[in-house]
Amino acid sequence: MGERPRVWKTEGIVLRRRNIGEADSIFTIYADREGKFDAIAKGVRKVRSHMRGHIEPLMRTRVMLAQGRTLDVLTQAEVVQAYRNIREDLSRGADAMYCAELVDRFTIEHGHNPGVFGWLAAVLDALEAGSPHHVLRQFELQMLALAGYELQLDGCGLCGARLPEEETLFSTSAGGLLCVQCRPSGGTGRMLTVRAVKVMRFARVAGCAEFAALRVSPDLDAELRAALGSMVHAVLERQPLTERYVDEIAALDRRTFTVEAPTGVQFTATNPGP
């Protein structure tokens, strides 16, 4: 491999920020070509910083960086998509931060995983356009697959047998659905309705906009979330920090106030309520 360039440019989506000192911040960015990386922006929190308003969590931004000793240094930033609707709506903002955290947790630094950037951009575009909450279920499924944990949905996760169209056991330990014969050896799990199985299969092959147009009831979304969430927890060996934040925002009454998400973005917005 050749030496890293001393100055380089890229375009990426900001996953989170960590403030250091009085005016500096470290940003975690996921770029289409370079994958995930951290970079420091010196003086970015100063009022007169030329990068203020151009690089924040949940922004798609073009950046220029200079090679540094430990972290590369952000020298320029130009916002491409600010996702203002997301940032001004607590519910959509919480959903978006959850997706950003999943990308952060499922990827390694400087590891390029084709498809991750495209799916993150697609789900943010969908949330910006007002797509329903269930787009998160497709994103969870796709991130699991991209991380090497594609769910077994077409046949039994243990023996491969064809599954009849009936209520079926979803097993986290088996990584998918189980036939009746394999249930005793497949560990614990949860039963999924026929509709839930069909929606999961559709989520695997549909585009984000196509899946967003699907009618999914709150009960069905909760069923899918329980199954996919258990798989996410098992793979990450922890609950995502923003998952609890999503639940807290969903429980709030309609009102206007400022909150800060676990990943460093502030929202001053009106919660739309249930």
Provide a concise account of the structure shown.
By secondary structure, the protein is α+β, with helices and mostly antiparallel strands. Helices cover 34% and strands 24% of the residues. It has two domains: 75 residues, OB fold (Dihydrolipoamide Acetyltransferase, E2P); 163 residues, Up-down Bundle (de novo design (two linked rop proteins)), CATH 1.20.1440.
Q: Overall pLDDT, averaged?
A: 91
DSSP strand (E) fraction? 15-25%
Order of helices and strands: EEEEEHHHHEEEHHHHEE
So what's the CATH class of the largest domain? Mainly Alpha
Overall tally of structural domains:
2
Instruction: For the record, give the distance between the C-alpha atoms at the N and C termini, rounded to a whole number.
Output: 53 Å
Helix content: 25-40%
- What is the radius of gyration computed over CA atoms, rounded to a whole number of angstroms? 20 Å
Number of strands: 10
What CATH calls the topology of the largest domain is de novo design (two linked rop proteins)
**Quaternary structure classification:** single chain
Which structural class fits the helix and strand makeup?
A: alpha+beta
Shape: elongated
Q: Under the CATH scheme, which architecture of the largest domain would be assigned?
A: Up-down Bundle
Strand line-up across the major sheet: 1-2-3-5-4
CATH superfamily of the largest domain: Recombination protein O, C-terminal domain
Helical run tally: 8
Task: Please summarize the sheet with the most strands.
Answer: 5 strands, mixed, barrel
Low-confidence stretches: none
